[in-house]
Design goal:
The protein is built from three helices and twelve strands, in the order E-E-H-H-E-E-H-E-E-E-E-E-E-E-E. With about 180 residues, it is an alpha+beta fold. It has a single domain, classed as q2cbj1_9rhob like domain (Jelly Rolls, Sandwich).
């Protein structure tokens, strides 16, 4: 893998790119998560199976997230053929035994979704995605993520993460992309 954005196994709506620039920051992102995720000013949402799946940290908590924002928007803009994309993001921390239940990201005006992988120990969970929401159509793909990679996909694609069977923590950052809102004067 390299820094070139490419379609995943010929799929029209799933892209993957490995970012050497971001991979260098992974230890800083993981450390920043542990230093900040319990703070009172940090929002945590989506309680499933006894775990709050989403932890909302930002550049105030971890300044290097500005680089993530820049890199992620660069790839989203390439896919969407625009230059006015903004991103919202959250950490997904999966300790041993955790799963992420089946869901989609098309609640609002999202144009694209993504996961960026910080730490993916062996057997810590595969990304399962359905290529169609129509019963009997499309296929179900099982993707084993790699640290330092972005996986980008349409927000209406049903996806989940299998159980973390390792003894280590798995970290990713989920993202939704939409058009930048401009204020009128």
């Amino acid at each position: 893998m390299n820094d070139k954005l490419q379609k995943y196994e010929g799929q029209d709506d799933i892209y993957i790119v490995h970012s050497a620039r971001m991979k260098q920051l992974n230890p800083i992102l993981a450390k920043g998560f542990f230093e900040n995720h319990q703070r009172d000013d940090v929002e945590r949402t989506h309680l499933f199976n006894g775990r709050l799946e989403n932890t909302y940290l930002n550049e105030y908590h971890i300044p290097e997230l500005a680089i993530l924002r820049e890199e992620a928007c660069k790839y989203a803009n390439q896919i969407l053929g625009t230059n006015d994309i903004e991103v919202g993001f959250w950490f997904n921390h999966m300790p041993p035994g955790a799963v992420t239940t089946s869901h989609r990201h098309d609640d609002d005006d999202e144009l694209l979704s993504s996961a960026y992988y910080i730490s993916v120990p062996e057997n810590s969970g595969d990304f399962i995605i359905k290529t169609s929401n129509v019963p009997g159509k499309g296929e179900t793909l099982r993707i084993t993520p790699v640290a330092g990679s972005f996986l980008l996909f349409k927000p209406d694609m049903l996806h989940e993460v299998t159980e973390n069977l390792s003894n280590e923590h798995r970290f990713s950052i989920g993202m939704n992309f939409g058009r930048r809102e401009y204020e009128e004067y």
